[in-house]
Every structure is written in C-alpha cells, then in structure tokens.
Amino acid sequence: MNNYLIPANAKKGQLIFNLFRWEDLLILLAGGMITLISVFLIKDDGLITMVLKLLPIGIAVLLVMPVAYYHNVLVFLTEMIKFFSEQRQYRWKGWCVGSGDEQQ
Length: 104
Hints:
Helix content is 48%, strand content 0%. By secondary structure, the protein is mostly helical.
C-alpha cells in the first residue's frame, strides 16, 4: 500500500507567485489604477483627500490579504455571504434511525 504525504502547500504551486489567483491580480490592478488616476486628477493635498486617494489600493490589498483556513479575505467574505444567504435544511437522523419503526 502506498502512503503518500501531500504537502500543506501543494495547491500554492497552482497560484501566481504562489499567492494570487487571476481574480486577485485583477482586483489589485484595478485598485492600483484607480488610485493612480485619482492621485493625478485630484489636486487637493489635505489629509482627508490623501486618505480618499489611497482608499482603493488599501481596500484591494485588504481583500487579497491571506487569511488562515481560507485563501484570502475575499474568499472568506464570499463564503460567509453564501453561508448566511442560502437556506439550509437539515434532516435529523439520530441513533434510532434504524430502530425498526416504520414511521421515519
């Protein structure tokens, strides 16, 4: 019998730079482009304006940041929304499911 050990990072070899999916790179690219355009187009240099200019890249970086047990924050948020929005129906089958009673 062959007992193969699969390394914990086996799926990382399928990712770009062992970290990103194509969707993640598109999100980073879009956030970077929006930030770059807003830096050149918005002339005010106040603190609030600088925060607003850098907000798109900050959100993009937070979305593609790795999280334990998930790929990244975006995948975690997607799974959380899916979990809370889909209707779940559980059928209980306890220890007495095969007790011989025909009314199940």
